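Hey, I'm writing a tutorial for new members on how sequence and structure tokens pair up, and I'd like a real worked example in the thread rather than a made-up one. If someone can provide the structure for the chain below, I'll link this post from the tutorial.
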Amino acid sequence: MRPAPDAVAPGPLVIRPRRLRVVAAVMAATLTLAALYGWLVLPRNVRDLFTPSQVLTLLGLLGALLLVMISLALSVVRADETGLRFRNGLRSHVVPWDRVHKIILRRGDPWAMLLLTPADGRPFTADLDADKRQLMALQYGDGAAAQIGVEELRRRQRYYADR
């Protein structure tokens, strides 16, 4: 008799957004090219009116926009025997399996949500104050790939909850 699929120890899992990475790359390239084109089509006498600090401000704004797009595109979820490690934009989180209550991705949600049991050991209460984290690497727009990722995380949660 073969063991059930949940009984096999899973290896590490890494999930990254697919469409978000493509959209961010295209938008970053488009924004950069548009800014460069906009600068080059200005008449020379108008460009000469910009002070170095104004040019640096414009470059800083462009850099900030690119940083936001790239940081969101680099969102990731890593799952192993210790729990979940994930990065949403510039912020990283570490959640052990015993704190994971449920992983959900409903129709219309932009990304998956991780519901956490209270750190003090109280039972989970489903209300607006429930502790939760976004899993931005699991984008609803990725379709079946996101659903498969959520199911795999749920399978690992079941496996490690029994340990």
